[in-house]
Fold this sequence. Notes:
Elements: H1 2-19, H2 26-33, H3 37-49, E1 54-57, E2 61-64, H4 77-91, H5 96-112, H6 132-148, E3 150-156, E4 161-171, E5 176-182, E6 187-192, E7 196-205, E8 222-225
Parallel strand pairs: 6-8
Antiparallel strand pairs: 1-2, 3-4, 3-7, 4-5, 5-6
Helix pairs in contact: 1-3, 2-3, 4-5
Amino acid sequence: MPGSESRSARLSAIMNRLSGGETLRAEDLAREFGVSQRSIYRDMDTLKASGMPIEATQGTGYRAAAVITLPPLHLNEQELEALHLGLLAVAASADEDLQAAAQSVSEKLDTAIPAEGGISDQSFAVYPFEHAGTALQHLATLRAAIRSQQRLRVTLGSGQIEDLRPLKLDYWGRVWILTSYGETTQGFVKTHVSSLTSVSILPGLFVSEEGKGLADLTSAEITNLR
Length: 226
């Protein structure tokens, strides 16, 4: 169908021009493509319906709102975590427009990130800043303790106190999960970092022991602390 191919090419050309920041008048486009102004109006309606943020100003023409379309990005876990941390910082600002923008970007990330992985409480992430912001104050301490094999004492929101050997920190899209060997419970435990109300360093480092390290985790029963 030559007509549809011609229109498809025209739509693509108009979209590319708009993406470049030009302001385009319907009469100029109609003359350029050899079609009626009514055809151009229909083209603009089609581009709007497809998601192109087109603004029309009487007497001036059509222009695209300032939108940046990024190519596909391949982020590793640390890069994605850094991106979310940046959004959390913006969301904590007093600028309501920036807060709304951070929320919007966060929702787009949620849509783009594959829903895969292992925690059953992944729905926790639908509250992007309310809970994730609580975890920020503990992340540096937890990471340092994991690197140095430093024992920790944590208090949960329930008031429960646990002495832990922190083993690893997993990130699941604004949800941080700490896996440890619990010296209080004498077994492996997992904890949402956002559920920790306090984290303190205990004197003395722990050493690797059989049955208490990551290598033993696959066959061990894990308790979820809340």
